[in-house]
Design a protein that fits this description.
This protein is an alpha+beta fold. The protein folds into three domains: 221 residues, Pesticidal crystal protein, N-terminal domain (Delta-Endotoxin, domain 1, Up-down Bundle), CATH 1.20.190.10; 191 residues, Vitelline Membrane Outer Layer Protein I, subunit A (Aligned Prism); 137 residues, Sandwich (Jelly Rolls). It is 31% helix and 27% strand. The protein contains ten helices and 25 strands. Strands 2, 15, 17, 18, 20, 23 and 25 form a seven-stranded mixed β-sheet that branches. Strands 3, 9, 10, 11, 12, 13 and 14 form a seven-stranded mixed β-sheet that branches. Strands 1, 4, 5, 6, 7 and 8 form a six-stranded mixed β-sheet that branches. The radius of gyration is 26 Å and the shape is globular. It comes from Bacillus thuringiensis. Pfam families: Endotoxin_C (PF03944), Endotoxin_M (PF00555), Endotoxin_N (PF03945). This is Crystaline entomocidal protoxin.
Length: 607
């Protein structure tokens, strides 16, 4: 703890006037049926239950395909229609909903047949029924999905397109895994597997293309435009991109066992200011610049908040962030000051690293209109209090800066599981706080808008390597990067990417990324696989601890490293398997003197 007497150390128990009072107004268990609720539940399911079988099939029925009627499908359409201000004409709308209804009815029959077959897998009649049901399901999906890509309506239909695409990939994986037991010949199974791998790429590239088209469409110069832009980005990340990022896991030959994935991308709640969506002209670019540029993932430890005052109105004027690298594998570091270091009240430190981190904010806004002309009558748009709630299985009290408010982050980023209290079922945790600011003490208008960044809860604090699953570790979860940079992801990787520069023929200057890893099992042997993109054959070296486990020239995968498509990525893999005794870091180094390479993730495959 800092010994500075001017700091109020805001751990939960000394930040509430009455720590025994639940400041969140009680935990409510609710069932969410909005497109975002459904999509978050599906993403949680895909992250945790991605194993072929009746459990997976029936899970898709329970989450979507067995409970949706026309009104639920229509809600998916309305969500994007409102964001882009485009109405789907009646014929296209009715056609899409009818097709989705038909797929839902057919999949419920498929699921019941699957359940019966799995209970009696050698029964000839049930095997034949599965062949019939698969062919019917595959044919219906092959026909329906192009009709969800109606000309001029690709963007408003995008989230239902992705739901249907996800269903199609799951069915194709089923036949790739179980087709022989159903009685299909090897040629048919191989053909359907080829369909699976081809459609993973096709569906991915289609979704990202039309996501980007919609995002460009809603951009504009003012704060109102930025709010809509950010809402589109946030909501379609949840309903489209997160699901698409998991499509590669359907490749049953590359991922034959349970696979653990992580989503490291960040999304942003809107700046918590009154009237923010209406009154700030020409501010969109400034707001967007206040968001962090691509970076290695870090762990938010604390926020030290400074308070200023204007004519007796106290407000959040600035703050400093302290964070740690992933795995707490290095010293804590401090970010530069956001905003201004007000001293109208003692600075207050919010400890973020309690429980499972901050999953919810409840903020209080303050807006003061100018009544007269003069230095003491500015327009004031500020935040005058925020409550920070912790994800936990117990009732850990919140931390509060000044006071709680009614602007609830859960309204924009709801839980992924509505069957338990939000403190357990939350989907995201607070990962960073930046600030959009405008004006000084002598300005006509003073704006201080904290910008809350959120990361999916699957992006764990530590890189834990499972002994019974393939574990995917994004390269941005590294803790050391040399002669390289973090670049924006293309939308289908679930996060940003690491680019390793060429050495310029200087062996001391080889691009390198290092990732901390932790092994609960010391006896399991693993092969290491890397997903990468390169425009030329390139010599790469992978080290595990101090040992080199791969050093070879890998093939070119792409014609350009700009505007990446799913087919621009390839894989290489260590030939031998190793145990955790090699060490607790893994890294990849670019040995090329002239070419750069992009690293998406490491994969640990137990053998």
């Amino acid at each position: 703890m800092d010994n500075n007497p001017n700091i109020n150390e805001c751990i939960p128990y000394n930040c509430l006037s009455n720590p025994e009072v639940e400041v969140l107004g009680g935990e409510r268990i609710e069932t969410g049926y909005t497109p975002i609720d459904i999509s978050l539940s599906l993403t949680q399911f895909l992250l945790s239950e991605f194993v072929p079988g009746a459990g997976f099939v029936l899970g898709l029925v329970d989450i979507i395909w067995g409970i949706f009627g026309p009104s639920q499908w229509d809600a998916f359409l309305v969500q994007i229609e409102q964001l882009i201000n485009q109405r789907i004409e009646e014929f296209a709308r009715n056609q899409a909903i009818s097709r989705l209804e038909g797929l839902s009815n057919l999949y419920q029959i498929y699921a019941e047949s699957f359940r019966e077959w799995e209970a009696d897998p050698t029964n000839p009649a049930l095997r034949e029924e599965m062949r019939i049901q698969f062919n019917d399901m595959n044919s219906a999906l092959t026909t329906a999905i192009p009709l969800l890509a109606v000309q001029n309506y690709q963007v408003p239909l995008l989230s239902v397109y992705v739901q249907a695409a996800n269903l199609h990939l799951s069915v194709l994986r089923d036949v790739s895994v179980f087709g022989q037991r159903w009685g299909f010949d090897a040629a048919t199974i191989n053909s359907r597997y080829n369909d699976l791998t081809r459609l993973i790429g096709n569906y991915t590239d289609y979704a990202v293309r039309w996501y980007n088209t919609g995002l460009e469409r809603v951009w504009g110069p003012d704060s109102r435009d930025w709010v809509r832009y950010n809402q589109f980005r946030r909501e379609l990340t949840l309903t489209v991109l997160d699901i698409v990022a998991l499509f590669p896991n359907y490749d049953s030959r590359r991922y034959p066992i349970r696979t653990v994935s992580q989503l490291t991308r960040e999304i942003y709640t809107n700046p918590v200011l009154e009237n923010f969506d209406g009154s700030f002209r020409g501010s969109a670019q400034g707001i967007e610049r206040s968001i962090r540029s691509p970076h290695l993932m870090d762990i938010l430890n604390s926020i030290t908040i400074y308070t200023d005052a204007h004519r007796g109105y106290y407000y959040w004027s600035g703050h400093q962030i302290m964070a740690s690298p992933v795995g707490f594998s290095g010293p804590e570091f401090t970010f530069p000051l956001y905003g201004t270091m007000g001293n109208a009240a003692p600075q207050q430190r919010i400890v973020a690293q309690l429980g499972q981190g901050v999953y919810r904010t409840l903020s209080s806004t303050f807006y003061r209109r100018p009544f007269n002309i003069g230095i003491n009558n500015q327009q004031l748009s500020v935040l005058d209090g925020t409550e920070f709630a912790y994800g936990t299985s117990s009732n850990l009290p919140s931390a509060v800066y000044r006071k709680s408010g009614t602007v609830d982050s859960l309204d924009e980023i709801p839980p992924q599981n509505n069957n338990v209290p939000p403190r357990q079922g939350f989907s995201h945790r607070l990962s960073h706080v930046s600030m959009f600011r405008s004006g000084s003490s002598s300005s006509v208008s003073i704006i201080r808008a904290p910008m809350f960044s959120w990361i999916h809860r699957s992006a764990e604090f530590n890189n834990i390597i499972a002994s019974d699953s393939i574990t995917q570790i994004p390269a941005v979860k590294g803790n050391f990067l040399f002669n390289g940079s973090v670049i924006s992801g293309p939308g289908f990787t679930g996060g940003d990417l690491v680019r390793l520069n060429s050495s310029g023929n200087n062996i001391q200057n080889r691009g390198y990324i290092e990732v901390p890893i932790h092994f609960p099992s010391t006896s399991t042997r693993y092969r290491v696989r890397v997903r990468y993109a390169s425009v030329t054959p390139i010599h790469l070296n992978v080290n595990w601890g101090n040992s080199s486990i791969f050093s070879n020239t890998v093939p070119a995968t792409a014609t350009s490293l700009d505007n990446l498509q799913s087919s621009d990525f390839g894989y290489f893999e260590s030939a031998n398997a190793f145990t955790s005794s090699l060490g607790n870091i893994v890294g990849v180094r670019n040995f090329s003197g002239t070419a750069g390479v992009i690293i998406d993730r490491f994969e640990f495959i137990p053998v």
